Amino acid sequence: MSDLEWFFREEKRILDMPEEPDEDYLARVYGYRPSEDATVAHERGTSEAPIKDADRPRELNVDMSESLNEVQKVTVPPEDLHINQGMTTKRKSSTERTVDPSVRHSKKRRLSPEHKKGSASVTLAHATGSASDNPDSHELHQTSVGPPTDAAGPQSPVARPPIQQPVVKETTITSPAPDKGKAREHEANHVDPPLHPYSKSTGRIIATNNDKQPDVPSPQQASDDATRTTHARYSSHAKRTVKSKVIEVSTANPGPAAAPSSSSVTTPAAPGPSSSKVSGARAKKAEEPKPKTDALKKEKSGKKKRELITPREYAQRLQDNLSEVAATRKSRASPYLRGKRIYYHGGDMQYASEETRKRMDYIIRYGGTVVPTYDPEVITHIVTTEKPSAPAFLRATGLRSLRDIPNHIPTVTWSWVIRAPRRVIPETPVEKGGESTDVADNNKGDKTEQIEDSSSEPTADYHLIVHAAFKDRLDAGMPPPPSNKGRSKPQQSATSAASGPSRPTPQEPKSGRDGSDTSIISEFTVDRVESKQSAILDFDDSSFLGKLAAGPNGAGVPGRATVTDNPKSSLNNKSDSTPEVDSLAPFYNQARAEREAEDLRSGLSSEEESAKEIGNGGKRAATHAVSKKRVRRFVHVFCRAILTLIQGFLCDSKAEEHTACANQDVVNKLQELRELHKAKLSKEDTWKVYTYDKAIRALRSYPTRIRCYEEALAIPGIGDKTAQKITEILQTGDLRRIGYEKTEDIEAINMFQGIYGVGRQTAYKWYANGCRTLDDVRARKGGIKLSTCQEIGLEYYADFLTVPYESRGAALLYYTGDDIFNRSLRLKANKMGYSLNQRGLYQGIVRNPSNKLEKLNEGTIIASETEEEILRILGVPWQEPHERIRG
DNA sequence: CGGCGGTACTG
DNA sequence: CAGTAC
DNA sequence: GCCG
C-alpha cells in the first residue's frame, strides 16, 4: 500500500471517527488505553503492533537507489550495429543489450576504423584522460581539430585514456510514454503515472504500459501514443525492474488528478439544496478541480446543509466556540495537538470545503488551536493540503515569499497531523502541560521505551520533513543549529551530560585489532584500520537537511517546468529563465560545508560516548542498536526521498555541482585505492574494484559532507570497511596505504589496461615480460604478442572521432557529455517530443507502435550544427563540455 | 557464506 | 577455454 | 568489499 493510499484511508477513518472515541477504539487503533499506564500502553503498542503495520508504509515509497543502479534498457538500432564490426565485438543476433548506466559511464566506445571515411568531416581529437576522473580532458574545443595521426600522443605514463571510438553508434533510450506534465523525470527512474490519461474521464483505471508486455501494446495505447517518439521496450531484466518500480512509484506519486478525486470521494462536499447551483460551482472551485462526475454525484448526495463560509470565518467560529467545543472534547480524545497553534491552508481562501471544515474540527477535537489568520507571532505550525500551491498559499497568507515564514514554523501537510497520533507517546488523556509546542518535545522525556516507540518512524524531525508542504522549506521547524549543541539527544542523556559533547576528545587511533579488521592489498602491506566508531547522527542539525533541500540543483526543481505537452512551447524557454536564483546560494553550501567540517570533530568525539554505552551492554545497548538501525534506515529513506523530490533531469544542472561534490577528496582517495586493486589479478580484487565503483558512485551523488562513520555507513554500497576508510580520510585527509601501494608496477599495469582490448591479465603479462611503457609494448619488448584489436587499440590510444560536418553540434554534444548526461539529454528530448542522436535533434519522428524500433517517418532535423541551438531547444542551460560529466 | 550481469567475440 | 568488452 |  502506498503512502497516499494509506493516507487517504487513514484520513477517512479518522475524520469519520466518532466524536468521542471509546476506549476500545483507541486501544485498537493506537494501542492506547487511557485507563492504562502509559508504559503498558506503550508495550502493547510496540509489541503487538495494534495498527496493522503491514498496511502502513513506514517510509516514503521512494527508492532511487534501485533504479539508479538498475539495468537500464538501451536499444541499439540494427542499422547502426554493423558499423561496430570493425573491432572485436558485434552483436548480430541481438538488437538489444542491457547497459547499466551507473557502471558504464566511462566513455568507452567502440573502435571503428573504417568509419573514418566521410568527405566533409571534422576530426575531434580527444585529450587523454579518463573522462570521469579528469574533467580537463574534455577541453576539446574546435581547436583540437586535426587528423588522427597524432595517435602517438599517449606518452603520459599516468594517463589511462579510455578509447574514444569513431563510431557512430546510436543508442536510443527507451522509456515509457511520457507523462504529461508532472511526475518523476529521473531518467532511470521514470515510470508512467498510474492513471492513463483517459481513465480520468471514464473512471476506469487502465493499466499503464509498464504493466503490459512491452512488445504487445494495446491498440488504444498505440493510437494514443502514435505521435510520441518514446517507447517502452525492455529486456526481461529491465522489465522486471520497471514493473516493480511501477508498484512503488506510481502509487506513491499518482497522477495529478488522482489525489484530489479520491479525497473528494472520502469527503464529499455537501451543498445545500437551496443554493445547490451556486454552492456546487463554488465547491468545484474549492480545493482542486474535480471531474464532472464527482460534482454531479455531490449535488445528488448533498444532504447536510453547510453554508458558504470562508476558512477564516470557520476557524474564527471554532475559536469563538472553543470553550464549548473543549467541553465536549474534554473527556477522551487524546489532546495530542495541544499547544499546537495551527494555521490551516486548505487551498481556497473563499470557501471552506467540507474537508477543510472537518480538518479544522479535527484539530480542535484533538486539542489543537486553529488560528484563523496567518500570524507568525501566534502560530506554531502551518498545515496545508497534500499538494499545496505555493502561490495560492502566499495569496491566502498575504506573504510575499515562502522565505518570509519564520524558520521555526514548519509547513507541513495534513498527513503530518494524521500521522501524529501514533508517534506520540500515549500519555494520560488530560495532559496538563500545554508547553509542548513541538513534536520533538514529545520525545524529550528520555525513556528508552519512548525511543523504541517513536521509532515506528525515526524521529520527530523526520515527520516535519516527510510531511513538509513546501520542499523549499524542508528544514523549517527544526531547531536552529546552535541551540541544539547543548541539547542532549535522547539516546545519550546521562553520559553526554557528564562529559558534554564539547569536550575535545581526540580520536585515539587504535591499532588493528584482529585480522578481520584489516585490509590487505598485497601480502606486504596490511592496512591497519581503526576500530569502528559509532555515532548517533544528530538529526536536529538542520544544516544537513537544509543542504539536502538545497540539493544539487539548488532550491528549484529544474527541468520540470520546461517539459510540456507541446514541444513548441518549450522553444520559448530560455536557459536563464530561472528567475530568482539566490546568487548567494553557492556560498551557502560552502559555509555549511565548513561548519559541518567543524561539527565533524565534535560529532566524532561524542561518538565515543555512545560507543561506550553500547559497550556497557544491557537493555540500553539494545535500544541503541535498534535506534542505530533505524537511524540508518532513516538516512536511507530520507535521502532517497529528498533526492527524488528535488532532482530534475541530470543534464539540467552543471557538472560542477556533481563533480565538485562535498566529499570529493574522499572520492579521490577511494578512486586511487580502486586503481590499486584494479591492477591485481585475484578475483577478490576484482570484486573490490566492483565494490569501490559502487561506493564511489554513491559517494559522488551524496549531497552533503559526510560527517561520521555512521553517516557513511548508511549510504548504500558503503559498508563497514569503506566507511572506516572514509572516516580515516575525513580525519587525516589521507589514506596511508595508498602511498605504500602506488608503485611502478601498478601504474604501468593500469596504463596498459587503458588500451582497448587489454585487461588485467594481458597488462600483467606484459609487465611481467618487462614492458614498462607504451613504447616497450610497441617494440613488443619481452616477446609479447598483441591481438589484432589490441594493436588497433594501441594505435588509437589517443582517441579521435570523425563526424559529418553538419552534425558537428550534435556530435560535440554527444561526445562531450558522458553516458549519463547523454541519456538524460535524450530522455528529455524524447519527453518533449523530439529525438536526439549524435546527428541531430529531430522532430516528429513517428514510430511503429508494435515495433518501436521501426521508424515510420524520419522526422525532420531541427538542429544539429551547434550545441547551443540544441541545448536551447531542449531548455537546458549552456554547459561547457567539462561541465557535462554526470557519471 | 555465496552472489555480484549475461553474452558475444577473439585467440 | 580464458580474456575482454559492453 | 557489500549485501542479503
UniProtKB/TrEMBL annotation:
Residues 36-61, 93-103, 179-190, 284-299, 429-450 have a biased composition (Basic and acidic residues). Residues 250-276 have a biased composition (Low complexity). It comes from Rhodofomes roseus. It is found in: Nucleus. Keywords: Metal-binding, Nucleotidyltransferase, Nucleus, Transferase. Its main location: nucleus. This is BRCT domain-containing protein. The keyword Disulfide bond does not apply.
